Each structure stands twice: as C-alpha cells, then as structure tokens.
Amino acid sequence: MKHIDETKRRNLEALAVWHEEKYREPELRNLFFELTSRCNEKCLHCGSRCGDAGADELPADVFKRVLDEVKREFSPRLPMICITGGEPLLRRDFFEILSYAHILGFRWGMTTNGTLITKDIARRLAGAGMGTVSVSLDGLKEQHDLLRQTPGGFDRALEGIKNLIEENAFRHVQVTTVVHRKNIGDLPGLFRLLDGIDIDSWRVINMEPIGRALQYPELMLDKEDYKNLFGFIRAMRENGYPVSYGCSHWLGEELEGETRDWYFLCNAGIYTASVMANGDVGACLDIERRPETIQGSVLTERFTDIWNNRFRLFRRDFSDLNPTCAACPDRRFCTGDSRHTWDYDKNEPMLCFRGILFD
C-alpha cells in the first residue's frame, strides 16, 4: 500500500507541474456547442436552467463559421466537438450542422436525454459521424421521471439507448446518472439493469449546487450519502465494471485514481471552451454565466482571438483567493476545485470534499 501511495503522490506532483504549465500554454481539446436552450424535459438539477425562458439558438451558419475558423486555425490538432443543449436533437438543422463538422474532419460526440433517439435517428447519427454519446438515466423509472419532470421519460430514454446500441456504429455509448438524496437507493437496481445492456461505461455523478438545483437543497447528498456513493463506485470498479465518477472535484489522495481513470484536473479554459446558444463564449458550460465568466461572443469576435487572448480568469490557481484554500495542504492538486462550483461572489468553493471524504 505504501508503494501505491508513493506512486500516486509522484503522479499528482507531476500533474500539478503540468497544470501550472497549461495556465501559460493552454491547449484546446474540447469545444462544446450548446446548440439550443430548448428542452423537452425540465430537470430539477439542470445547471443552465434550460426551458425557464425563451429559447436561444444561434443560426446554423454561425456554428459553421466557427467550425471553419477552428479547422483553419487549429489544424492538424482539431478539438473534439461536444454537442449539448438543452436537448440538441430538438434543432431541425441538427444534422446539417453536425454533418458539416464531420465533413471537415472533426470528431464529435453528444450529451442527450435520449428520448428522441428512434431507430431512424440512431441511423442518421451514425451517418453524420457521431463517435460518442452519453444518455441520461437518473435512477429507475419513478425517480428518473420525477427528477426530469417527464412522465414516460425513462422508458423513452432506455429505448433510445437500445436503438444506439443496436445501430452498432458508435465508438462509445455511455449512460450518465446524477445522484441525489431520493435516487441514491436506486444505484444497485440501476446497475443490474445496465449490466444487461451492452453500454460501454456508466458515469455516476452527484447533484451539484448550481443552476436549478439551488432551488432544491433537500436533494443534495449529505456526508454519509457521499461516502456511500464513492464506496459504490469503487466497489464496482474493483469488480471490473466500467463505472466511473465524473470529471469534477478533488477527492483526496485515497480516492483519486480509484473512482475514475484519471486524477482531478479542472479543464475549464485550459483544455475546454464553449460556444453558448446565444453566441457567448465561456469555459465549462456548467459555470455560472455572469459578466466575468463570459469571455466574448462569436457574433462580434473571432473565436480564436477569444481563446488566445481571454480566459485569464480561468488560467490561474484559484486556491490563493481565500485563506482556507490557501492554507490547504492539497491546494497544488485541487487549485480551488471545480470552476463550475466556485462561488464567484465569495471567492470560495461551494463544494469541497475535505471533511466529507477525507480530512
């Protein structure tokens, strides 16, 4: 065990140095396109509160112009195009945009609620070059439909997953589950369901204190829930199942590398940028949208200029912004934790696992 701990510490130290280098020399690896703020569900945990107001949708030509520019400026190392919404398949010109990306040579994948993926849509997604897809299943039927406020949503999502698998044309089909107080008990049953389906991985994440979820504090996990959640993920992985926690949060040395295949590194503004449905450019789409986190707009500026000359807010260590983080012995590895759960008014993390998962 001592040898494993020492190896992990060396890896973490190397990653900390790498992270500091990337503040100075960022590398665009993932470019998110929020195709629409429309959604056919109204999830209680939605970080961007989709469906609360009038829908934003950039014209297809604007997305194509950004793709042309990125192709020209970033070749040969093109970023992965990550498609999200709202529910991206609600756009009538969805396949026009993504077929264009495919023709230009971009790899692309999508996050979706799965309810619109018929056999024909799965076939068309394959034809448009989609390589990866993540479909949401937030518990078993009752809890999934309650969280997403969509009667019948679970059945349609499950059918969508089966249609994707049956098409047999995608590199990776993933299921994502957001865990909260009322559905954490569904995890064993959901595992048994997914174990009988030929998905490639199961991504299990906690409900975050952002967006619409702030209206439902009673759904947030408590200390014991978190311990049970990570214990479940770790046990699944030790038994050889492709179950993983998401990219968020420093988990402490014991759990880092044990509940996902990588060590924590917040990619916002370093490896990741986003074009929002209204044309704004930011880092991670889950970050609170406010003047200082919005870096520009593709309606008035070149995306490349924004990427190269802005994002100073994110290309720095956040842990020196408050005395608690500055005094933390893990600050080099955590750097203030995930930028999407940072309180930009108080300059402190809204969720820190010190005192929850580790001391």
- Helix fraction by DSSP (H/I, runs of at least 4): 25-40%
- Low-confidence parts: none
Biggest sheet architecture: 10 strands, mixed
Query: Which series of helices and strands comes N to C?
Result: HEHEHEHEHHEHEHEEEEHHHEE
Which helices and strands appear, and what pairs or packs with what?
Blueprint: H1 2-24, E1 30-34, H2 60-74, E2 80-84, H3 94-104, E3 108-112, H4 119-127, E4 130-136, H5 141-147, H6 153-167, E5 172-179, H7 187-195, E6 201-206, H8 223-238, E7 243-245, E8 272-275, E9 280-282, E10 296-297, H9 303-309, H10 323-326, H11 331-334, E11 342-343, E12 348-349
Helix pairs in contact: 2-3, 4-6
Q: Explain this structure to me?
A:
This protein is α/β, with parallel strands linked by helices. It contains 11 helices and 12 strands. It has helices spanning 2-24, 60-74, 94-104, 119-127, 141-147, 153-167, 187-195, 223-238, 303-309, 323-326, 331-334; strands at 30-34, 80-84, 108-112, 130-136, 172-179, 201-206, 243-245, 272-275, 280-282, 296-297, 342-343, 348-349. Strands 7-6-5-4-3-2-1-8-9-10 form a 10-stranded mixed β-sheet, with helices on one face. Strands 11-12 form a two-stranded antiparallel sheet. Strand 1, helix 2 and strand 2 form a beta-alpha-beta unit. Helix 2 (60-74) runs parallel beside helix 3 (94-104) and helix 4 (119-127) crosses helix 6 (153-167). The two termini are 19 Å apart. 39% of the residues are buried. The mean pLDDT is 94.
